Amino acid sequence: ETGVTQTPRHLVMGMTNKKSLKCEQHLGHNAMYWYKQSAKKPLELMFVYSLEERVENNSVPSRFSPECPNSSHLFLHLHTLQPEDSALYLCASSQFTAAAELFFGEGSRLTVL
Amino acid sequence: AQSVTQLDSQVPVFEEAPVELRCNYSSSVSVYLFWYVQYPNQGLQLLLKYLSGSTLVESINGFEAEFNKSQTSFHLRKPSVHISDTAEYFCAVSDMDSSYKLIFGSGTRLLVRP
Question: Quick check: B27 and B95 in contact, CB under 8 A?
Fold first, then answer.
């Protein structure tokens, strides 16, 4: 059982669709993160949750909506996306302590048509 | 605001040759520094980190990085690379006040050839 599991691994959606990305961590961590990875660009921190409270919302468009129902699960709800939102979305978890190591999932590859 | 610059998008090198992957950061406060590695079709994994103390930090697989405060650099080095080191390497920084907020560079792809 891997530490951080993301589903689906691949997702193709139209601009009018609504879909969700799911992340689950089995490491007993109390913080979870969403990052966006686009080709040739730095990873972009999108959201951070600590103990199910959002502590960071990094100027992300409202068409991305995070949800953290408990410390083990994190969702990213997607609606009316744009083609430029196509990217690899990475989930990570950690202990919410100074300089804690982030443990990443394998990512969900999103393509918006 | 903090930022991380990895000037080399790709570094090709022959097996058993030495390699250096460059990383420079900008920050107005004290920082923590990290190198993460991403193998094909996998998530990122922590390779090594600098928190305080000795400016030279090492990983278990032979990589090392040196924190240079005056040059605001944290370059990654390995004296002899293996084919299995082929991967994407990301430098990252966080400041000590909001250390959960990790800012990454754009990555350097290390391509080791036989």
Answer: yes
A98: which chain B residues are within 8 Å (Cβ-Cβ)? 32, 96, 99
**Each residue of A27-51: pLDDT tens digit?**
999 999 999 999 878 889 999 998 8
Q: Using CB atoms, pick whichever of B94, B100, B104 lies closest to residue A42.
A: B104
Q: How many interface pairs between A and B have CB atoms less than 8 angstroms apart? A: 54
Which of these ranges, A19-23, A61-65, A98-102, has the smallest mean pLDDT?
A98-102
Alpha-carbon distance of A82 to A85, in angstroms, equals 5
CA B52 to chain centre: 16
Cβ–Cβ gap B32/A99 under 8 Å: yes
